[in-house]
Amino acid sequence: MDRKIQYKKFKNWAEKHQFSLNDLFPTIGKTKVYHINLSEENKTVRTEAEFNNPVFFDGKLAEIQEKNTDSIITGGYLEKRSLYTSDIYNAENSKEKRNIHLGVDFWLAKGTSIHAFLDGEVVCAVHQKSYKGYGGFIILKHKINDLEFYTLYGHLSEESVNNYTVGHRLKKGDKIGILGTYEENGAWVPHLHFQIMLSLLDYKDDFPGVALESEINFWGEMCPNPNYLIKSMALK
After folding, report:
1. Mean pLDDT across the stretch 43-51?
2. Does a structural domain hold residue 62?
3. Could you report the per-residue pLDDT of 84-99, keeping only the tens digit for each?
4. What pLDDT score was predicted for residue 96?
5. What's the rounded Cα separation, in Å, for the pair 236 and 228?
6. How many domains does the chain have?
7. pLDDT tops 90 at residue 198
8. 206 or 51, greater pLDDT
9. Residue 147 falls within a domain, yes or no?
10. In sequence order, what DSSP letters do the residues of 41-93 get, joined into one string?
11. Is 85 inside any structural domain?
12. 117-148 per-position pLDDT tens digit
């Protein structure tokens, strides 16, 4: 099916359904979000050194959380970030660096329980050991009548992904896993990278979470805005 038709079909379906962050995070008792900017112009982590220092970055997030105790620190969709320094973000046949974020990040504590917001089938459950990779990540396939799409849950614990094999089915509300520690989640301050995909393309046991700016139109349609589901005014 044509990508633009798929995108429109998903968007039309999403507009008719309401999902709560309580579906993803039922144990934390929060559904409001506080949008955090990590683009090139951000003032939270201004240098690569600050971004890659987990104590500093976590401290900044803690300061924001203390002022917004009823909200989940969230953001990042199609955000251009200058903070991706690992070689895994190098582009093939291009001098560009992949720096456009294709999902939404939810900055939550390690061990936070992540749950399925829809019935789904596990099509990928992998623990990446690469620096600044996903760590533990799971991709679920969702099929609703003639609509098919995928959701990706990145930076989980290693144990979380070891619980699954391809074909495992989850019901809405089932626990997927927990957020991993810095040491097992790709060397990130704990958070969930949540992403929607309309196709897995030709990827096996992986899928880009960051894209080239020159390809933003393609990836913006291939990976629709998760806020179509969340419908948060703070993320518009």
Report:
1. 85
2. yes
3. 766 667 677 667 778 8
4. 75
5. 10
6. 1
7. yes
8. 206
9. yes
10. T-SSS-SHHHHT-HHHHHHHHHHHHHH-TTEEEEE-TT-B-S---SGGGBPTT
11. yes
12. 999 999 999 999 988 899 999 999 999 999 99
How many Å from the N-terminal Cα to the C-terminal Cα in the chain?
28
CATH number of the domain residue 81 falls in? 2.70.70.10
Specify the 3-state DSSP secondary structure of 11.
helix
Return the structure tokens found at 224: 């629709």
- Contacts with 111 (C-beta within 8 Å, 6 or more apart), sequence order: 157, 178, 179
Reduce the DSSP state of residue 234 to 3 states and report it: helix
Q: Is the dihedral of CA 107, 124, 4, 14 positive or negative?
A: negative
Q: Is residue 233 part of a domain?
A: no
Instruction: Please give the C-alpha separations between residue 189 and each of 63, 109, 135, 193, 222, in angstroms, as whole numbers.
Output: 14, 9, 12, 11, 27
195-212 burial, b at 16+ Cβ within 10 Å, e below that, comes to bbbbeeeeeeeebbbbbb
Note down the domain range covering 49.
Answer: 3-228
| Alpha helices (H) along 68-181 | 158-162
Residue that is written with structure tokens 């880009």 in the block: 208
Amino acid at 124: C
